[in-house]
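Internal ticket - ligand job 334, 2-keto-D-gluconic acid:
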Amino acid sequence: MTAMQKPRILVARAIFPEVIERLAQHFEVEANVHDDIWSPAEFAAHLRDKDGALTTGSERIDAALLAACPRLRIVANMAVGYNNFDLAAMDAGGVQGTNAPGVLTETTADFGFALLLATARRVTEGERYLRAGQWRRWSYDLLAGAEVHGSTLGIIGMGRIGQAIARGGAYGFGMRVIYHNRSRLAPEVEAECKANYVGKEELLRTADHVVLVLPYSPESHHTIGAPELALMKPTATLVNIARGGIVDDAALAEALRTRRIAAAGLDVFEGEPQVHPGLLEVPNVVLTPHIASATLPTRLAMAQLAADNLIAFFAGRGPLTPVNQPRPRSDTNG
Ligand code: 8YV
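stdout (structure tokens):
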């Protein structure tokens, strides 16, 4: 790149036009404005001559892709999760990765409650019943669900979103909050969230509602499988707003079918957008298509933060929200 040339950026998915316009003030931009579905090979072909990319959680950044894209310096994910990044390959290849934390915290926590309430109080089941014309009269136990207020909320994964859910549960619904996390929070943060640290097994045995908000990694794969579901109360509910793969969906479908647990609310799935057929067959699960951060103001803030990262990086100011510290990439493009 000469001093006069603008860096070339690929925007991998359709995003807000105003963000593309902003990027175009700084970069030569190729944007997938029609939101075409690209195979990994097509994605690589579009990225081959680019210096940077704005991606979503759907684009996999791995060694094979980096080998095909020698100019690439930075990939800015419009997502707080970045399990679509092979960080070892990016480190080795000298490619900076960034994510979009903070701006989606409260919105995603809100959705955790939307799913928790819908699941515990059988909202979508009730709507299906009504739409099917089955509602003939009131009865004392019609679609009776689980209490939310005053119950015990168990949160696995206590980062920003987990803490927001803890505050909402404790202050909004008078819930007793217990949590499990890789590391225990500082006492003042625990006090602010009114949350008590417990082991995973104790959490699963004790909680009335379990909410998963931990990042996906090989270590968190199937954090909830058949053995964990077996520990839960038969009246308990499970909510996953984290990532597919954290729950063994086949085991969960079986636990819901046999009423080993009462119900589940799922926004994310193993192999999404495919959904395990067993989950589609049971009534006691609320299913949503990965929309926990989906409000337009939040999605705009996520896209702007990804753009901020690209702009800051190429201006030499360093990325705002880096997720790795790559070694400098040798200039192979002359
Ligand atoms: C995104 C998410 O919508 O931020 C995340 O990690 O899961 C969602 O908010 C999705 O990843 C698309 O980028």
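Auto-summary: Residues 56-57, 78-81, 104, 293 surround 2-keto-D-gluconic acid (CB under 6 Å). The first strand starts at residue 8 and ends at 11.
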